[in-house]
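=== Discrete structure encoding ===
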Amino acid sequence: MQSKKTVQWALWGIVLLVLPLVLQYFGNAWVRIADLALLYVMLALGLNIVVGYAGLLDLGYVAFYAVGAYMFGLMASPHLSETFAWFQSMFPDGLHSSIWLVIPLAALLAACTGVLLGIPVLKLRGDYLAIVTLGFGEIIRIFMNNLDHPVNITNGPKGLSQIDSIQVFGVDLAKRQEIFGFDISSVTMYYYLFLVLVLITVVICYRLQDSRIGRAWMAIREDEIAAKAMGINVRNMKLLAFGMGATFGGVSGAMFAGFQGFVSPESFSLMESVMIVAMVVLGGLGHIPGVILGAVLLASLPEVLRYVAGPLQELTGGRLDAAILRQLLIAMAMIVVMLLRPRGLWPTPEHGKSLAQKG
């Protein structure tokens, strides 16, 4: 049984390593879709800690994504040097931070933001919690949009541009590389970096799930009063869930900024938060493989449907907008899936069944 599992993992590993090299031959656009799908997997896994494990409905998760992206944007673009004379005197060439500094800082800053969000909503549940977190996400977006006056920090709706590309061990991921005779494009280099970060995220999530902290979160999710009666510090566990979930959002945002080379408030709209929640729910609440499946499907489906919406638009004589048609197709697909699989595409196995299988 163990050898069979090892073979399965080895096959999956080979598929994931070879996938971008195969997609390259069909065009870099397909590799780019895979890159963005990996970023959404990180976001969905982070939100799964808050929603899937602790049962706290968070509709403002995109705020942590924005915090990480803008932090990297400010630390790796000439914006601060061009705006503030005192900063330029200290850093004439701008502040070009290393990825090894950016990732821990993005995680720490997002975690602190998550805890700050958690403090005022500790006693809220259900719909009320969802509304407050939704408001928090919108506040962060509006804050980024308007923080160009009287002091220009975020450059407002124009966003931050000329953000440095990510460099790992001296290798610039924005440049094509030739390895063992293979020509590897920039988007493929980013794919491997994001894949490593996703694997680290998956390992951390599995460790958390099987730990005492993970079990405490699940107890709170099932019955908060009973969890409190058993001696679980509900307040601290909720704050920890918000902080841990936000961490992955911050790292994913920093990677997004380095990958795009540009960030603006438009990238962190309410629809992004709704899509991330949909990924977790569609895949299967609290089940890591299901969440990954949901994230990959919902991240890649809109891009794939571009090739379907175009011909359909032509059939209607251009009366239907391709973007609206694409959203309609996604909505229809989600409705069908939720009707057929109400617990998600790959729900967590029931406790009785999982124990029987282990036995």
